[in-house]
Amino acid sequence: MNSRLAQISREVSYALRHAPQEYGLKLDGKGFVPVEALLGALNARHPARRAVVREDLEEIIAISDKKRHEIVGDRIRALYGHSVRDKIERVPSAPPEALYHGTSHKALESILDGGLLPMGRQMVHLSADVEMAEQVGRRRDGHPVILQVDASAAHSDGLEFFEGNDRVWLAANIPAQYLSVLYS
Fold it and tell me: Rounded CA gap, 70 and 41, in Å?
């Protein structure tokens, strides 16, 4: 992704996940805003920058390895990572048997005591594969701890899981009993 699109992608994520009000946007219950409203807000904040158009957003979505956003008709939303106060409506889904979470060595003891908590987000983010968990974990630790989540057992015990995209799953929390250290 070129630097212009990368910068736009970061700003779109910020606007749709964390600060829609700063852009004059209001997320609907599922986290959508009109594409035209987002484009207007982005372009108003950066009048000297080449205007962002729908095709830019479509290209960002198409080439992103993390699939953070989606456009449906004339609306766009962030798929996961929200820290806004109002809860985003999600439909529960049966998770794969195992999911993964990359974390720092520093956080490990706390997680093994109290489970995975969403911290400043609405949901705990889980990875569908070890590679994604490693990538996420490296943001906080050069050699992250990879936790395996017994998602099948957790789901059987009544925990709800939500699909963020094909590689990211979400849950309100994951109690420690469903966690094991895959490697550290």
Answer: 18
Do residues 96 and 151 touch, judged by C-beta distance below 8 A? yes
Helix (H, G, I), strand (E, B) or coil at 124: strand
Q: Where residue 14 sits, what CATH number does that domain have? A: 1.10.10.970
d(CA 15, CA 72): 18
Q: Could you give the 3-state DSSP secondary structure of residue 58?
A: helix
The domain containing residue 64 runs over which residues?
3-78
Say whether pTM exceeds 0.70.
yes
Cβ distance 161 to 155 under 8 Å?
yes
Instruction: Tell me, yes or no, whether 86 lies in a domain.
Output: no
Residue 87, domain member (yes or no): no
pLDDT tens over the chain, length 184 residues: 899 999 999 999 999 999 999 999 999 999 999 999 999 999 999 999 999 999 999 999 999 988 899 999 999 999 999 999 999 999 999 999 999 999 999 999 999 999 999 999 999 999 999 999 999 999 999 999 999 999 999 999 999 999 999 999 999 999 999 999 998 8
